[in-house]
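Subject: Re: docking follow-up (pyridoxal-5'-phosphate)

Dear J.,

Thanks for your patience while I sorted out the input files. As discussed at Tuesday's group meeting, I've set up the holo structure prediction with pyridoxal-5'-phosphate included as the bound ligand rather than trying to dock it afterwards. The sequence and the ligand SMILES I used are pasted below, so you can double-check that they match what you have on your end before we go further.
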Amino acid sequence: MPTAEWFSPLLRPELVELKAYVPAPIPPGAVRLDANESPWALSPEARASLAVVLARLDLHRYPDVRATALREAIAADQGVNPDALVFGCGSDEVIALVLNALSAPRPGASHATALFPTPTFVMYRQTALSLGVRPHGVALDEAFDLALDPLLADLRRLRPNVVFLASPNNPTATLFSHDRLAAVLEASTDTLVMIDEAYAAFSGVRYGDLAARFPHAARLQTLSKVGLAALRVGWAILPPGIAAAVEKVRQPYNLNALSQVAALHCMTTLRPEIDAAVQRITSERARVEPLLRAIDGLSVTPSAANFWWIAVPDDAARVSDAMRVRGVVVRSFHAHGGALTRRLRITVGAPAENDRMLDALRASL
Ligand SMILES: Cc1ncc(COP(=O)(O)O)c(C=O)c1O
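The structure tokens for the complex came back this morning:
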């Protein structure tokens, strides 16, 4: 960022530390295993039925501010109060809305803090920084589970406004122990603890029990990982008082009418097809994981998600570049430095894609 520009003094100082998100270009015809998307497109029949419901929309009117029909369907599905839901353009936006609403420093403090384990989903840090909230990471243990002692110590010391815990966690693909999640909740009664269930469809574990037990627990959910990434529909299930506060910082029409209607159709009429695609991903995970383990020199963390977390013998950037040349795009964590320089994250693809990935990986080590 050039410092001599007239607007430089007007920019928020936090922006110096931030980079805009620019995904690496995808070579034509490449197998895309870098973004934890589903490899399965909707069937022609599902597309046709979706076209019918979308065609009924009145595009000259603003969308329903409350996404009422979608809200009621999700609330019924999750067994929660419809007023507990706050929608966003993906759960990315919901993270920003929650941090925005809860960004006041505690009395006597100079800034608010958001705490999360590391490594984890980068948007917690990125979004906190962009909103003037200080991010604080606590390293996971060797099994990529929560390291309870340092976590509880930092919770007491920093008294964060919000804690983010993705389980399964991105990029480690691990499910955090239920006991440790409960211990964090027990130790932080005046902190909002957001349990991010973005990958819960692949672990089969949801945290409604913790949300029911702890009034400061919240859950974050999205349609992005179950085959609907383009819709950009995510939501939080928040304690009702906090949901009402977060609603005040939400732009009224952040969830467009096409996404509302498509999401509802996919979660109801097309639900069997969406669930079957998730099932195919977990079957592929079970088929391919032993084949990955059999490759000499790799360390593969058991996956509870739709991706694998892999340590390669040397530089992950070199391996991912070599795989890209072979037409397979995966995510290297080399740029994060430290222990992550040897780490790759590879999304579970369709069977033929996974076979190509295995060949490319073997040839690239
Ligand atoms: C843990 C986690 N939470 C949330 C998201 C954001 O998903 P979206 O904004 O597409 O709903 C992601 C995306 O990668 C993620 O890994």
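A couple of observations from a first look. The mean pLDDT is 96. Residues 36, 90-92, 121, 166, 170, 196, 198, 222, 224, 234 surround pyridoxal-5'-phosphate (CB under 6 Å).

Let me know if you'd like me to rerun anything.

Best regards,
T.
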